Amino acid sequence: MEALLAVLVGAFFATAVYLMLSRHSVRMLLGIAILGNAVNLLIFTGGRLTREVPPIIGAGLDALPEGAANPLPQALILTAIVISFSFFAFLLVLTYRAYQDLGTDDTDEMRLAEPKDDPMPPLGY
Amino acid sequence: MAATTSAPIDLSAALQLAPTPAADWLVILPPALMIGLGAVLMMLRHRIRLHAPIAIAGLAGLVLIDALLLWRVLAVGPVTMVMGRWLPPFGIAFSVDVFGAVMALVSAVVALAAAVAACTEIDDARLRYGFFPFLLLLMAGVSGAFLTGDIFNLYVWFEVLLISSFGLLILGSEREQIDGAMKYAVLNLIGTTLFLIAVGYLYAVFGTLNMADLVLKARSISGAPLMTLSCLFILAFAMKAAAFPVNFWLPASYHTPRVTVSALFGGLLTKVGIYALLRVMVMLFPLQLEELSLVVAVVAALTMLAAALGMLAQNDLRRLAGYAVIAGIGNMMAGIAVGSVAGLSGAIFYALHSMLAMTALYLVIGRAAALTGEWTLSAQGGLYQRAPGFAFVSLALFLAVAGLPPFSGLWPKIVLVKASLDIGAWWLAGSILLSGFLVTIALARVFLLVYWRPAPGPQAGEGTLPAAAFGPILALGLLIVLFGLFPEWPLSLSQEAAAGLIDPAAYLGSVFPGGGAR
């Protein structure tokens, strides 16, 4: 199960990197969304995946039985999901606004803050 | 719901049964106060006249709390407070040592100066959209990052400061800002995601997130992919700190918002990246850092040289200041690459100097632009004639940024150059000096063109500015002069902070009072 998920996480990372290398902001955004999910799955896999051992502390014990899935990474993912979701929402609005105001979704053409014909500083007094 | 069968459980192994001592609450107070006041300001969003007084009072309180915290840490050593009284490594721990406390104190001073400067610069529309709440939440993230002792918690504080910085950056929604924010947001988000990947692997390897526990376990573990982890951490934090190959988001975005916001970002955000680099790499993975020290050193040299050349090529003063921020990052990374107590204390001292100096530099540029109505070197001029006092303060600041005596930039550079020569890295020392030389030329040219040269044309700026507009610059300038004239105090603090990072025995002792023999 872990091996399968490891391959899946790798595929997610590859897709995310491919999409983020695009010049178009919407594809970059999709890449970022997939990257966030790749990380979540990675942490999930890091906490052991199993259905055989129920994560219940039996009477008289004070720790989970050997081989049970670790609940802490799942808690970490919950935090990470909320954060990446809110960031994705912000970026989505920002991209839409950039498309409206700048009239392009090609990041190479977004040169307003760094104009191509920015003059050199004066060389003499 | 009450369990009827089980025997009473001994909680003392997992819980701190005695209530937390009142003095320990100081550790959590800075982020708690900032989040609380930020929420209060959001509730008062229609009463924008109340925002500035509340925020300034809150930030003054933050300075006071951080000063008390530093005083306490100096008196009794590192202080740890655990959330929900769960003993480490189970609960989230906030651990403060000299390094965290001194960074938190200087960041609070910088934020206070920026908040005062904002009163004369931020307009009503930006106030209505929440400038001060964003500022306070940013400070919650920054203080939390400096004070936490849990690496996942550090990630969360990174995100808190990141989302607040998005808000500040985009405030006003000018077209340049949207363009800059696209690049800033995407690249910083990728950087923190890399950090999260590294944290995920770290947990999979070590099974703990508490930094003190990690230090203990990293010593005993072998054969784990710690090198991969270290590379990921260095890349993630270098991205946050704007080190050379991954620095291009900074000059693309920092000049777009109001100059007070740029001042705040230039002073604080990149230094949080440096702080995290020092905390994680020096304290947790010293062996791996030593292996990678050549890589870090080359990155440092390239960062400072590329940034100094970038400064020479800029016409817009705000973009020039952005490159000045990056040049400082190169110097700090040089200290990290050297890795000795001297090198690290040089890096920490430089970070403290850079927080004050970069904020003041942006504020000075903002005031110069308000006086002349122009942002570019080619259009500005004649400021010396119009405001000689301001020109004097500006010159002092330029000398401090360039690292010339008698100001605060000189001493950390001396420490860094000496530390690199001590380990035989003459080329690193040479690049520090060369980059300092180029920065001196760039800033001297700014003084020549903007202050000495007569105005090249009619200028649309205001004739005079209220004295209040110069207050924060004077206060920061005074600190810079004091650091320059009496360097013993910040230097000894930096040395103590560096020693605490290299030998974290006291830090471990505060987290595990039982000696940490687990």
From TrEMBL, chain A:
Entry's InterPro entries? Answer: CPA3_antiporter_subunitC, NUOK/Mnh_C1-like
Keyword Calcium part of the UniProt annotation: no
Q: Which UniProt keywords apply?
A: Cell membrane, Membrane, Transmembrane, Transmembrane helix
Q: Is Kinase included in the keywords of this UniProt record?
A: no
Annotated TM spans = 6-21, 28-46, 75-94
Q: How does it sit in the membrane?
A: Multi-pass membrane protein
Which compartments is it annotated to reside in? Cell membrane
A GO CC term attached to the entry = plasma membrane
Q: Would you identify the family this protein belongs to, as annotated?
A: Belongs to the CPA3 antiporters (TC 2.A.63) subunit C family.
Q: What is this protein called?
A: Na+/H+ antiporter subunit C
Which organism is this protein's natural source? Rhizobium straminoryzae
Automatic annotation (TrEMBL), chain B:
What is the protein's membrane topology class? Multi-pass membrane protein
Q: Origin, by domain of life?
A: Bacteria
Q: Would the keyword ATP-binding turn up in this protein's UniProt record?
A: no
Keyword line: Cell membrane, Membrane, Transmembrane, Transmembrane helix
Q: What is its main location?
A: membrane
Q: Record's Gene Ontology CC terms?
A: plasma membrane
Coiled-coil region: none
GO BP terms: ATP synthesis coupled electron transport
The entry's localization annotation reads: Cell membrane; Membrane
Which residue ranges traverse the bilayer? 25-44, 51-71, 91-117, 129-148, 154-172, 184-206, 226-250, 262-286, 292-313, 320-341, 347-366, 387-405, 425-452, 464-486
GO MF entry, a single one: NADH dehydrogenase (ubiquinone) activity
Residue ranges constituting the NADH:quinone oxidoreductase/Mrp antiporter transmembrane domain according to the UniProt record: 150-433
Q: Which family does it belong to?
A: Belongs to the CPA3 antiporters (TC 2.A.63) subunit D family.
Cross-referenced PANTHER family: NA(+)_H(+) ANTIPORTER SUBUNIT D1, NADH DEHYDROGENASE
Name of this protein: Na+/H+ antiporter subunit D
Q: Identify the species of origin.
A: Rhizobium straminoryzae
Traced from the root, the source organism's taxonomic lineage reads:
Bacteria, Pseudomonadati, Pseudomonadota, Alphaproteobacteria, Hyphomicrobiales
